[in-house]
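fyi for ur records
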Amino acid sequence: MSPLTPEQIASYHENGYLLLRADEHKLVEPAELKQWTQEVQAWPRVKGKWMPYDEININGERQLVRTERFIDYHPKFKSLVCGEQLAGILKAVSGDDMLLFKEKINYKQPQGNGFQAHLDAPAYDHIGRIEHVTANIAIDAATPENGCLEVVRGSHKMKVEFADAGRITPEWENAHEWTSVPLKMGDMLIFGSHLAHRSAENKTDKSRSSLYAIFHSRSDGEDLREQYYKHRMEMFPPEHGGLFFECVDVQMNEGEVADIYILEREDGKDYSKGYQTYGFAAPFTKAQEKFAATVDVS
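which gave:
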């Protein structure tokens, strides 16, 4: 892609975000991005590698909502996220060389929950009180019907009121104008970690997956991604499967087969602070609540 125009850079700093269409940035073919995502989504739940998270959707069903820390196991995703082309775009808006801080795919499956109004920064501040820049690439088209991102223009310059952690108070949320940002497959939205944003439920019969790659300035440090995921693994592990749960089938007396989720977290450890840091606006806690309410492992 050619360098960003002065007008595009000024728009980013004024509004807090910048939209680049797929045929502008030309970072990846949308069909390839979709294929890579399907590969990651189908990965088994294994210990010590990628981090899958679940939700309880609006129909009360458990489903995969997100995968984090996956580029080390997918060279093509790593080439995209850590490539020179994206780095050049991010440097143009930030004024500095950028390093990857974290990466995630939000699947927003059919009947998937929305994300409450929030800022991203409070979920990262324990690693360093710095500005992060997110590159959000639409794997599927994002529309108001399937829960596209909504933002408050210029909110990165405002005093935002929090109910807890990084979740925004209903009073502040209702007092400001929210702008929907629909995306076509492959479009990229760049925004900072102090921009107020939210998304609604996906009430359609198709997924609305998105790639989020979050970056920090090189001048902030060299190993922040490692620090972040070390802390997250300790404080906010996946809620089943992956690192801390093992799912097994058990034959019931009546001849039925039930799924029993065996907890592998440290017995008696309180993970509530992890939820406050990492799950304040996301639907992760719904999966945890249902697990606690329906499974007896005594």
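Residues 30-41 form the longest helix (12 residues). thats all i got for now
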